[in-house]
Inverse folding.
């Protein structure tokens, strides 16, 4: 074989500090550095995403706490509203009884007035007992 033909079959080498290395190795090393750079960028990106997720979870926890507090306050307001409605209803009943007592006395129905007065006394006594228990 002629010497000029054998040159084509030899791998072309690149000179480095450590000696001759084939050209594909030099490209591979460059690709490895590039890959390392990508991996580092991905790691920093993942750390940033992880921090963002932690922040999101913290904000979700805060929102959940606020929501729970609002729900508790809402329940308290509902209880207070029911209590006020009950008091208003009792007051209306007592006012109705008082009005009927006055009308019965005006018309001379004293026995009806006495009965209505007794009912009013029972309601007031019942309310006082509830206040003591409650």
């Amino acid at each position: 074989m002629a010497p000029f033909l054998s040159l084509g079959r030899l791998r072309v080498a690149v000179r480095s500090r450590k000696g001759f290395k084939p050209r594909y190795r030099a490209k591979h090393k460059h690709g490895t550095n590039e890959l390392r750079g990508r991996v580092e960028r991905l790691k920093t990106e993942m750390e940033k995403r992880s921090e963002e997720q932690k922040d999101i979870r913290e904000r979700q926890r805060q929102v959940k706490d606020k929501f729970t507090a609002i729900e508790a306050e809402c329940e308290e307001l509902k209880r207070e509203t029911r209590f006020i409605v009950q008091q208003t209803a009792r007051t209306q009943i007592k006012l109705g009884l008082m009005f009927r007592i006055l009308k019965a006395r005006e018309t001379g129905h004293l026995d009806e007035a006495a009965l209505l007065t007794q009912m009013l006394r029972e309601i007031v006594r019942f309310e006082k007992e509830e206040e003591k228990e409650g």
Remarks:
- The longest helix spans residues 23-107.
